[in-house]
Design brief:
20 helices; alpha+beta; 13% strand; globular; 5-stranded antiparallel sheet
C-alpha cells in the first residue's frame, strides 16, 4: 500500500508537467472560429506565421513562455466556441509511439503510415516520438514537391540526426531508437537496422551511403569530444590516431579514409560482393555544417536539421562533406567512371569505361592550364604563362561617367541566379588528354587552351573587357579558353592563335549535373513562393520575403548555390598546409575530377555571357554599368527598382538579350539599392560597389 507522501509526490509530478494542448486540428478550428488569421496570431505571440502553421499541422509544439500563453488563448476560445462534434475540454493527445525498425537493411517496411513517410521527405509527417520527448521544429521543409518513390531497401530515407538520448530523427518524420554507445556500434546499427540510405542517381553508379549527423550530446555519448580544437584550420582538424574512439574503430576492424576522423568521417569495410559497408558521419559541434553554406542549420533542432538535409539529399545528393565536396561527388554520381561490359573472349562481365565520364585515372593538365606549383609546371620549367579565366572584378573608371549618370539618384545591383550553373548547360569540355599544336586554325567547337594576341581589340571603355577578369585591355599574347576566343570572333575580330593545347575527345560532361542542380534550385524557390509564372513586379516582391517566410528552405537554397560554386572551384583545388613545397603532388591531383580546364571553361563562358548582356543592355537602353563582381552588376538608376531601367517591349514583355528578372539560373534578381553618390565615392577610392552591395566574394572556392 503506497504511503500518503508517495501519492502526494506522484500527484505533484503530474501538476508540474508541461501544459497540454488540444490536438492540432482543434487548434486550427478554434482559431478559425474566433476569426483570427495565422498571421495575426503569430504577431500576438511574437513568432512567425510559419511557426503557427507548424503548431496547427502537428509538425512542432510551442515552448515556454509561448506554450503557456498559447494554452491560455486556446482555453478562452474553447469556452466561447465549443464544437458539437468535438469536445471542448483541452485533453492531451495520445502520446505517439516510435515506428518499428526493420530488422535488416533490405527488409520491407512495415505496412504503416509512418513507414511510408520517406515517400514525401519534403512534406514530412510529424515525427513520432516517445512520451516525454516534445516535438521540436522551427520550420517545415518544402511542401509542394512531388514525392519520390520509396526504395524498399531504404524505408527511412537517406539520413538521420542522432541526439544524445538515442533518438534518431529521419527525413520522413519517423524517430528511430538507436541504442549505440560507441562509434562501431553506431555503424553496425546504421547498416543493419536503421533502414537508411539512398538509391543510385545513375544506372551505372552506386547507392548513396547512409549519413548520420551527430549533435553535440550524441558525440559526447559516443566518446567523442564536444569540440575539436587545435592550431590547424578548422577544416583540417582530426582526432589524433591514439584517441580512444579512433582506436576502437580500428579494433573492430573498421577503417577510416585518409581524411581521418574529422567533422566529416567515413567509416567503412571492404565491400562484400555488391553490398557496400560504409557510413558517413557528420559532427555538428565540429562545424561540419559551414554557416556560409548552411545558414542557421547547426542551431536548429534535430528534427528540423533532418528535414533541411533531407530536402537537399533528395534534390541534390546525400551530403558527403562540405557543399564543395558534395558538388564534386554529384558530378561523379551522375557520370560514373565505369560500367559493366561483357568481355568478348571470356563472356564474363567486367568493369569498363563509361562513355562521357572522366574515367578512373587522373589526367595531367596542359602546362598553361595548371597552377604554378603543379609538378607538370615545376618539373618542365614551364615559363609560357597560364590561363587567367576568372570571374569579373571590375570597377569603371570615374572619368567615363557622364553628368547625366552622376545625377541619377540610385545605384542598383542585379545578381544573376547561379550564373556558373547556367554556364555549365550544354558546355562541351575535353574528356581526353591535351595535345599540343603550333599555329592552329581556331575552331570554336574544340575545347582547349589557345595562345593568342587580343591586345589590338579596342572596345568601349565604359564596359569591361571580356578577355580579362579585371576588365582591362590585354597588353599582349595570353592564354585563353575556347569560349573567350569564340566571343572575340562573335564581336567581329579575327583570331589567329599562336599555339594551343586541345582535346580530341569531347562531351557535355556537366549536363546532368546542371540539370539536377537547376531543378533543385527552381523547385526550392517555387516551394518558397517564387515561381516562374510571376511577372517582374511580383517576382521582386516575392524575392524580398522568401527567406523570411521559410528559413529552413532558405538554408537549402543557400546550400544548393554553394554546391554549384564549390563544385566548380574544386575542379582546381590547390594544395593546403604550410609544409607544402612547390613541385610536390597533393591529394586532389589523384582525382580524375581535378580538371582545371573544365573550371576555366565554366568561368570563361559565364564571363562571356555577362559581357554579352552588358553589351546588349548598352545598345538597348544606353546604360553602362558602374561595376561588376562575379555575377553581380551595378547600374545607375532613376529608381530603386530595376523595373525603371530594364528593357521592355511595347507589349510589356522583357526584351531578349539583356538582363531579365526571374527565378531560373542565368536570370537576374535585385541584389541591393544604394545612393549613386555612395557608389561614385567607392569608385574614386578604387573600390568595387558590387562587392559592398552583394557582400560576397568573386572566387570559386577551391579548398573546402
Amino acid at each position: 500500500m503506497p504511503s500518503q507522501d508517495e501519492l502526494f509526490d506522484a500527484v505533484d509530478a503530474l501538476l508540474e508537467e508541461e501544459p497540454q494542448l488540444p490536438p492540432p486540428e482543434e487548434r486550427a478550428r478554434l482559431r478559425e472560429a474566433a476569426g483570427v488569421t495565422q498571421a495575426r496570431l503569430a504577431a500576438a505571440l511574437k513568432t512567425s506565421t510559419q511557426t503557427v502553421k507548424n503548431w496547427e499541422n502537428g509538425r512542432s509544439e510551442p515552448k515556454s513562455p509561448r506554450l503557456e500563453a498559447y494554452q491560455r488563448l486556446l482555453k478562452g476560445w474553447a469556452a466561447k466556441h465549443s464544437a458539437h462534434a468535438a469536445p471542448t475540454a483541452l485533453a492531451p493527445a495520445a502520446a505517439p509511439q516510435r515506428a518499428p525498425v526493420p530488422g535488416t537493411l533490405t527488409g520491407a517496411p512495415e505496412p504503416t503510415d509512418t513507414a511510408q513517410a520517406p515517400a514525401a521527405p519534403t512534406a514530412p509527417e510529424r515525427p513520432t516520438r516517445p512520451a516525454g520527448h516534445p516535438a521540436r521544429s522551427r520550420g517545415p521543409a518544402a511542401k509542394k514537391a512531388a514525392a519520390p518513390a520509396v526504395d524498399p531497401r531504404f524505408p527511412h530515407g537517406p539520413l538521420a540526426v542522432l541526439d544524445g538520448d538515442g533518438s534518431a530523427y529521419t527525413v520522413g518524420g519517423v524517430v528511430l531508437d538507436c541504442p549505440a554507445t560507441t562509434v562501431p556500434e553506431l555503424v553496425e546499427w546504421t547498416l543493419r537496422e536503421s533502414g537508411l540510405g539512398a538509391p543510385k542517381l545513375n544506372r551505372y553508379g552506386k547507392d548513396s551511403d547512409p549519413l548520420i549527423v551527430l549533435t553535440a550530446a550524441a558525440a559526447v555519448k559516443l566518446g567523442l569530444p564536444e569540440r575539436l580544437e587545435g592550431h590547424e584550420q578548422r577544416r583540417s582538424l582530426r582526432l589524433p590516431e591514439d584517441h580512444p574512439a579512433v582506436k576502437q574503430v580500428a579494433k573492430d576492424k573498421w577503417q577510416l579514409t585518409q581524411r581521418g576522423f574529422g567533422p566529416w568521417a567515413r567509416i567503412y569495410r571492404k565491400a562484400q560482393g555488391r553490398d557496400r559497408q560504409c557510413v558517413q558521419l557528420a559532427v555538428l559541434s565540429w562545424d561540419a555544417l559551414d554557416e556560409r553554406s548552411w545558414p542557421g542549420v547547426a542551431q536548429m533542432e534535430p528534427a528540423d536539421i533532418a528535414r533541411v538535409l533531407g530536402v537537399y539529399a533528395m534534390r541534390v545528393i546525400t551530403p558527403r562533406g562540405s557543399t564543395a565536396v558534395s558538388g564534386l561527388e554529384l558530378m561523379t554520381a551522375l557520370r560514373p567512371p565505369t560500367k559493366a561490359v561483357r568481355d568478348q573472349e571470356t563472356g564474363n562481365w567486367v568493369s569498363g569505361y563509361n562513355a562521357g565520364s572522366l574515367g578512373t585515372e587522373p589526367m595531367d593538365p596542359a602546362p598553361p592550364e595548371a597552377t604554378p606549383e603543379h609538378p607538370v609546371v615545376v618539373n618542365s620549367g614551364w615559363k609560357g604563362g597560364f590561363l587567367n579565366e576568372e570571374a569579373y572584378q571590375w570597377v569603371r573608371n570615374v572619368d567615363t561617367l557622364s553628368d547625366e549618370e552622376c545625377t541619377l539618384p540610385y545605384a542598383v545591383g542585379l545578381d544573376l541566379n547561379t550564373a556558373f550553373l547556367a554556364a555549365a548547360a550544354r558546355l562541351v569540355v575535353g574528356l581526353s588528354a591535351p595535345d599540343h599544336f603550333v599555329g592552329p586554325t581556331f575552331n570554336p567547337k574544340i575545347p582547349g587552351s589557345w595562345l593568342a594576341d587580343l591586345s589590338h581589340i579596342d572596345l568601349d571603355p565604359r564596359l569591361p573587357s571580356p578577355f580579362t577578369p579585371d576588365g582591362s585591355r590585354p597588353t599582349g599574347p595570353a592564354w585563353y579558353q575556347t569560349h573567350t576566343l569564340a566571343y572575340a570572333q562573335e564581336l567581329g575580330y579575327d583570331v589567329h592563335p599562336i599555339e594551343a593545347y586541345l582535346r580530341r575527345e569531347t562531351g557535355a560532361y556537366l549536363d546532368p549535373w546542371h540539370d539536377r542542380l537547376k531543378n533543385a534550385y527552381v523547385d526550392t524557390l517555387a516551394d518558397m513562393g517564387v515561381t516562374k509564372d510571376l511577372d517582374d513586379a511580383a517576382f521582386l516582391a516575392a524575392m524580398e520575403q522568401h527567406k523570411q517566410n521559410d528559413p529552413a528552405l532558405a538554408a537549402v537554397l543557400s546550400a544548393i548555390k554553394a554546391t554549384v560554386k564549390g563544385g566548380v572551384g574544386k575542379l582546381r583545388e590547390r594544395p593546403q598546409g604550410k609544409s607544402y613545397k612547390a613541385g610536390e603532388t597533393w591529394p586532389a591531383l589523384a582525382r580524375p575530377t581535378w580538371r582545371p580546364d573544365i573550371r576555366a571553361a565554366v568561368i570563361s563562358k559565364a564571363r562571356v555571357n555577362m559581357h554579352r548582356k552588358l553589351n546588349n543592355m548598352a545598345k538597348m537602353t544606353g546604360l553602362y554599368p558602374l561595376a561588376v563582381l562575379s555575377d553581380c552588376v551595378v547600374y545607375p538608376s532613376p529608381a530603386e527598382s530595376p523595373l525603371g531601367f530594364l528593357p521592355y517591349a511595347a507589349s510589356g514583355k522583357p526584351q531578349p538579350g539583356g538582363f531579365r528578372l526571374g527565378p531560373t539560373p542565368g536570370l537576374a534578381k535585385l541584389e541591393g539599392v544604394q545612393s549613386m553618390l555612395w557608389a561614385v565615392d567607392l569608385m574614386e577610392k578604387g573600390l568595387n560597389p558590387a562587392r559592398h552591395i552583394k557582400g560576397g566574394d568573386a572566387v570559386l572556392d577551391e579548398g573546402e
